[in-house]
Structures are given as structure tokens and as C-alpha cells.
Amino acid sequence: MALTSSDKKAVTDEVHRLIHIAEQFFNCRFPLPDVSFRRSGKNAGTAFLQQNRVNFNPVLLAENKDAFFAEVIAHEVSHLLTWQKFGKVKPHGNEWQAIMREVFNCEPSTTHNFDLSGLKIRTFPYQCGCQTINLSVRRHNKVLKGMQYRCTRCGEMLRFSANH
Questions:
Q1: Considering only CA atoms, which of 76, 89, 90, 65 is closest in space to residue 22?
Q2: Catalytic residue among 76, 95, 102, 107
Q3: How far apart are CA 77 and CA 97, in angstroms?
Q4: 164 residues of the chain, pLDDT tens digit each
Q5: Does residue 76 have an active-site annotation?
């Protein structure tokens, strides 16, 4: 399922609509952010505060349009507004939560539970005393540079399992 140009336009229009709602709520102007559609690991969306830009994962967006319009777009726009209104605060702190609830009438959830199989993310199997854990390419590369990870369940160091 590919993202169409009309899907991208609908998302951009929704970003602009949310900014307009925030302008009315706060009685001030906000600059319209740039909107991009690039894969970003497992993230559904990302806000780039200093760039005034929001990015949406096109694969997850194409597979979860309703959830993006109900939650994800407002989530990312709220990050930009929080930065512009309050400066450097906790990413999902009280200010961000208030914007989600009071301005956009959304529940301030910090994570998504989308099916990630469509992303085809490469992982590397690591073993401990109780399970196999698949690490991301980024974490695997950190291990190659000397980083060590422990299993949160048994506390044992993870070992790369090339046989898996």
C-alpha cells in the first residue's frame, strides 16, 4: 500500500488545520511547519523543533491512516507548538499533554502500537540466559563499537547469536 499525493496533501492540510486551531486557542500566530514523509525507523512521526518540521513515516501512514488523523498528526504538531510556546521542556511533559488535551481534544499517548511488519526492519539476534532479543541495526553497530546491553529480565549480558 503506497502513499499517494492526495494522502500527502490530506496530511499537510490537517497539519495546517491544527495550527489554525492552536492560533485561535492561544490567540497568536504560529508559522506553518514543513511536512515531510520519510521512513524513520519505528517512529510513526517525528517533530524537528528547530526546523519547524514534522515528518511522518509513509509506510505506517499508508497502513494506519485513521490512527494518524486521530492521534499521530496532533501528537507531532503538539511538539512543535510546545516548543514555540514554552521553549525547552520535557518532550511529553505537562505542557505537551495540555496542548494535546485542551487544544486538540486528544488523549496524550506517547507511543503507538502499529504493526511494524510492513517496515521490514533488519534486526540482529542476541542471546541471554532466558531469551533471544532482536536488536536494531543501530544497537548492533553500537555493540560492534564496544557497547554492551543487558537483558532486563535476567540481567545477563546479551551475546550476538549468528546461528539464528
A1: 76
A2: 76
A3: 12
A4: 678 999 999 999 999 999 999 999 999 999 999 999 987 777 788 999 999 999 998 988 988 888 888 899 999 999 999 999 999 999 899 999 999 999 999 988 866 566 566 666 677 889 999 988 888 788 899 999 999 999 988 999 999 987 65
A5: yes
